[in-house]
Design a protein that fits this description.
Number of domains: 2
Structural class: alpha/beta
Shape: globular
Order of helices and strands: EHEHEEEHHEHEEEHHHEHHEHEHEHH
Strand order of the largest sheet: 3-4-5-6-9-10
Number of strands: 13
Distance between the termini: 6 Å
CATH topology of the largest domain: Glycerate kinase, domain 2
Largest sheet: 6 strands, mixed
Helix content: 25-40%
Radius of gyration: 21 Å
Strand content: 15-25%
Length: 375
Amino acid sequence: MKIAVAPSSFKGSLSALRVALIIKDAINSVNKNVEVIPIPVSDGGEGLVDNLEFLLNIERITTQVNNPLMHKLNADYAVLNSETAILEMASASGLTLLNDDERNPLITTTFGTGELLKDAIKRGFKNIFIGAGGSATCDCGVGALTALGFNFSNHDKAPIYLSGQQLNEIDSLHMEDIISNLTETKIKVLCDVTNEVSGENGTAAVFAKQKGATEKEINELENNVNSFVDFTEKFFDLENTNIQYSGAAGGLAYGLHYYANAELISGIDFFLNLIDFKNRVKDCNLIISGEGLFDNQTLSSKAPFGVAKIAKELGIPLMIICGDYDERAKSNFCNYFKYFLSLKSFNNNRDELISEAEHYLRSLIIDFFNDYEFY
């Protein structure tokens, strides 16, 4: 029997690779004759580079950038070939880089992601993919664009600070200092959600709370995002720029699309195609996927949904494993999976589930496969 284990990360507790290896070890502790294939996946969020290194043995480049609060750190990105680099914005501007009391999307910035992109351009990479997920930010990519040489200013011609708090103050843009070769570089943003940048399904309304914003701050961010959208449409003489995928990574996708001519694509579809996922799993008897929180966002271009579509196409039974879940999302997804397991069956305390995720995950798998009919 052959089982593919293709989870995303359990955010805040376990990386996708760690989840896959725990599940593999737990299954083989029940039946050592089962061939278990770990395939950690990423939809563009944290772990993108680590997963690619595990699956494709790619090279890495390390460079110093600024984190979401403008403190120095080292961040890696992947080298696919001499012309292609794959960046992970979460390594520079990710939520997991900050302590709980530091999280506030009003003041966090994507400047470090822009520094990653600038470094890759300077090294001569012509094709650059940017994983846009797991962000701590809601600045519409203004921070990243500033690192690339876009100079936003207010009506007094003073430079705009690089966060969502000042988006509504942007009055002008000067582009004389933009890094050379930007226009010759093909940039694709790997989006982990399909949400637009503003509105009831927008980046502030849906994601700002989990990044540390209060209800009042969410409203402020929504107003500021709308102000930036208005500025962008006037500056480029555009209409209806509130498009699918543009809300990914706190609107980083929006900023890079309209100012750096980046193409916005599904992160999980790109990843699964790059690693030749269909070929890896075509002979499997079961596929296991999942993530920390299974909710309606899972059905919006997240990693388990991408895996589920392929499992269904190939006619392979799917198991979903998660830490916590939304009952309505589970019901909406029921046509895709045969088994659904949650760590909540052990404990309803989310903090304990996160801190003891490895223990609960291992126990969950062992309990299930002790009663599983292998063939």
